[in-house]
Amino acid sequence: MRNSFTNILRALYVVRVLARYDALFLVDDMDQVPLPLKIVRRIVPLFAFGRPVDKSLRRGERLALALQALGPSFIKLGQALSVRADLMGEEITQDLGNLRDKLPPFPFEEAKKTVEREFGRPLDEIYTSFDEKPIAAASIAQVHFAEIEEMATIVDEKGEERQEPFRRKVAVKILRPDIEKAFERDLQLFFWIADLVERFQPDFRRLRPRKIVEILEQSVSLEMDLRMEAAAASEMAENFEGDPEFSVPAIDWERTGQRVMTQGRVEGISLSNREALREADIDFEKLSAIVIRVFLHQVLRDGFFHADMHHGNLFVTPEGKLIAVDFGIMGRMDMETRLFMAEMLYAFLTGDYRRAAEVHFEAGYVPKGKSLDAFTQACRSIGEPILGKPVNEISIGRLLIQLFQITETFEMETQPQLLLLQKTMVTAEGVAHSLNNNVNFWEVSYPTVEEWMRENMGPEARIAQIVNDGMSFARKLPSLVSRADRILTRMEEEAHEADLNKLKRARLDHRGLGPVYFICGLAAGISATVLYLLS
User: Fold this and answer.
1) Which of 129, 150, 295, 438 is the most exposed place for a label (fewest CB within 10 A)?
2) Which residues contact 278 (CB under 8 A, 6 or more apart)?
3) How confident is the model at residue 97 (pLDDT cuts 50, 70, 90)?
4) What pLDDT score was predicted for residue 504?
5) The dihedral of CA 76, 77, 79, 80: what is its sign?
6) Are 15 and 63 in contact (CB under 8 A)?
7) Which residues touch 400 (CB under 8 Å, ≥6 apart)?
8) Is 21 helix (H, G, I), strand (E, B) or coil?
9) pLDDT class for 60, splitting at 50, 70, 90?
10) Are 412 and 365 in contact (CB under 8 A)?
11) Which contiguous run of DSSP H or E holds residue 452?
């Protein structure tokens, strides 16, 4: 009861802020509005004091401003909703996609306390120097520049080695004080609202509003343990080790904990600073192509991608190498999903709408009871407007947005991993186009996609899969035979307890399992033959 009362008070405050920014259209758009909510909708705006919002702003822009005013939890909620074009509409989600969690910094004394509490030592023992003014402040953490002293091996003119100290520049990310409590309070409210929506808006159940909050809760819990972000950065650094076009700053694990993360400082120019990029004579055309290739490598090759690839998180070195930071939001895609994406997109681009529809059914994304022919027609309605267009005018992100917009008609359940991919793809495309308006997305991506499809969907990949399946089956043969013997033994024991006649019949059944042994042996033989032919 107490939680419900607290949630009601908090909800009233939220509605008041939404009213101040003229963003209560969310309630107005509902088909069935409970009577108490109708009353609140009419009364609360009367008490929404404050400077009037600019009425010329789009609905999504007003909503983004309101969420920003409500604080960190609501900023994260807005970012989560920015991938839900099926729920919010394309225009609103695009505006929410521009929502950046830039907030006022917390005091240096709080940052110092957090670092010293995390490592149990004074700040000046951990870092040689530490800038009091943060370089960036976001909803969950802020970043300070610092330096640490390390020993370097120096080789003199005679070829002799010696150790000398040097200062390494680092960036230190520190969680906001009591951020966990703030998120816990607001997440309780989000769950409460999601349950109300599912109760009073049955049509919204397939959109799984509670699932949205659960995903948000999981994402935030990972972001609030900076060791997880450090691990993500480390994994991506391994994936791109030795890559000439992309790298990730190294993690200093000795100075990384749950609330503090230290990594190498980026010596480069932010992609958001266009003027500085021009002054550095950066090749915009080449850089835009690198952004696309790096993104495709992350998604297709690794199945592990940076899910927040906006301009502020990307830097370029004077040599033209791309560097990413902020690994709090990451996406993963298993091989099955990657194969689905590749085949579905290929079907769209070749005009094979029947196949585009079939892969959705095969993946289980569309309920079996729905019409394949009708879904094929829906796919055609998306594909025809882009078919025949110059490839540089085709946006893969826009194609995915339109595809997800037909989900309501066919009762497709939301696929979180695809929604996150769609959002990231739109962002990456946007970054590439901002650098080079004439970038030919498909021309740049074709070699990367072609190589991946050949390796994972071509004849060689299919033979390798047969071999792997055969090897896997062969490894299971001993346990299968053993299990068959155990079943037979149990059958004989049960038959013996009944009568001798049943025992005889059970022994005859033993001969009936001969085909099982034959199939097992045949599979092992096929596996061995394939291995021999490939060797």
Assistant:
1) 438
2) none
3) confident
4) 52
5) positive
6) no
7) 418, 421, 422, 425, 426
8) coil
9) confident
10) yes
11) helix 441-457
314-316 vs 246-247, strand pairing mode: unpaired
Within 8 A by CB and 6+ apart from 304, the residues are 235, 236, 239, 298, 330, 331, 332, 333
Residue 523: what pLDDT? 45
Question: What's the whole-number mean pLDDT along residues 318-345?
Answer: 88
Break the chain down into helix, strand, coil percent, rounded to 5: 65, 10, 25
CB 79 within 8 A of CB 99: yes
pTM of the model as a whole = 0.73
Q: What is the mean pLDDT of the chain?
A: 79
CB-CB contact of 524 with 469 (8 Å): no
Q: What residue spans define the domains of the chain?
A: 2-103+181-222, 104-137+141-175+226-265, 266-457, 460-534
Q: In sequence order, which residues have a C-beta less than 8 Å from that of residue 414 and are 6 or more positions away?
A: 84, 86, 206, 207, 208, 211, 407
First vs last Cα of the chain: how many Å apart?
70
Does 500 or 320 have the greater pLDDT score?
320
Question: Among all chains, which residue has been given the structure tokens 């946007």?
Answer: 430
- Predicted pLDDT at 44: 65
Token pair, residue 324, equals: 């990413």
- Tell me the C-alpha distance between 123 and 130, whole Å: 8
Name which residue leads in pLDDT, 321 or 476.
321
Phi/psi at 327 (5° precision): -105, 30
Cα 233 from chain centroid?
Answer: 14
Between CA 508 and CA 512 the distance in angstroms is 7
**Cα radius of gyration rounded to whole Å, the chain:** 29
Q: Which amino acid is at 77?
A: L
The dihedral built from the CA positions of residue 420, 393, 383 and 94, taken in this order, carries a sign that is positive
Q: Is 378 exposed, middle or buried (0-12, 13-18, 19+ CB in 10 A)?
A: buried
Give the torsion through C-alpha atoms of 315, 318, 320, 322, to 10 deg. Answer: -20
**Residues sharing a CB contact under 8 Å with residue 306, sequence separation 6 or more, in sequence order:** 236, 298, 313, 324, 327, 329, 330, 331, 424
Q: In Å, what is the CA distance from 275 to each residue of 279, 432, 435?
A: 6, 16, 12
What whole-number distance in Å separates Cα of residue 67 and Cα of residue 372? 40
Active-site positions read 308
